[in-house]
Design brief:
Number of strands: 4
Number of helices: 11
Shape: globular
Largest sheet: 2 strands, antiparallel
Structural class: mainly alpha
Oligomer: single chain
Strand content: 5-15%
Length: 252
């Protein structure tokens, strides 16, 4: 996990007796545990969290706040949070697949235009319902407001090998608002959510993209050139659904 909720009041009530060094050690141990999602081995852990000069304090925190098992030190509270987090990711993945299937079925049932259909004139307004420039207002959906800059920052952080976002126009905003709403709607089915939970999902989503050799330009086509995805391409409905389904990870 690259994100987890931090409950300040809860943390303070359990750690008010700690010294400054012990408090730092506990925070770093928690970060280490959430990042690696596995039991902490006592050997060399102080060095791994950058506190080799405070090994005794680190071991003291392990004994007090973590449970010693045959596999290492574990945190039951953190394990529960990690399990809930992956459950949300799985639900969002299922939602993406369902959304893709609905769009596919809708295309099959579309009525084809007849020869007598009136052509689109130069003064006729284009249909922007497929990708509204600004998306549906958040006050109508009841979902957290789309954090454009937050998602862009996560994209740059987790996928530095892909094309950097230089322009964020209305079309791109529309794509992101739609994907944000889809993810938010699915996550909100199990519990109350805010923007941080949705950003956490996108962080994991971008990490997922980073494991695809095809999407990151590591697979050459017959002409010797490699495809490299960008954020706009990723956010388009069909591409987004295929990424969630893992269809671009077969060449890894």
């Amino acid at each position: 996990m690259h994100y987890y909720q931090f409950h300040i009041g809860d943390y303070k009530s359990h750690t008010s007796h700690l010294s400054v060094i012990e408090d730092i050690a506990y925070r770093r141990l928690l970060d280490f545990y959430y990042l690696h999602e596995k039991p902490i081995k006592q050997h060399n852990i102080a060095r791994q969290i950058g506190m080799r000069d405070y090994e005794q304090e680190v071991l003291s925190i392990l004994d007090e706040f973590f449970l010693s098992t045959t596999d290492g030190f574990v945190s039951l509270r953190a394990n529960k949070e990690i399990e809930n987090y992956h459950s949300k990711i799985e639900q969002a993945s299922k939602a993406g697949k369902a959304s893709a299937e609905r769009r596919f079925n809708a295309r099959l049932t579309d009525v084809q235009p007849t020869i007598n259909q009136e052509p689109l004139t130069i003064n006729q307004e284009p249909d922007i319902s497929i990708c509204p420039p600004s998306g549906e207002p958040e006050d109508k959906t009841g979902l957290p407001k789309c954090n454009h800059q937050g998602v862009i920052d996560l994209y740059h952080k987790h996928l530095p090998m892909l094309r950097k976002v230089e322009v964020w126009n209305d079309a791109r905003k529309g794509y992101l608002r739609q994907r944000w709403r889809e993810v938010a709607d699915e996550l909100s089915k199990t519990k109350e959510i805010g923007a941080p939970e949705i950003l956490g999902w996108f962080a994991e989503f971008f990490d997922h993209i980073g494991t695809s050799r095809f999407l990151t330009g590591k697979v050459n086509s017959k002409d010797g050139r490699a495809f490299v995805a960008d954020l706009e391409w990723i956010l388009k409905p069909s591409n987004f659904a295929k990424i969630v389904e893992g269809k671009y990870h077969g060449t890894n």
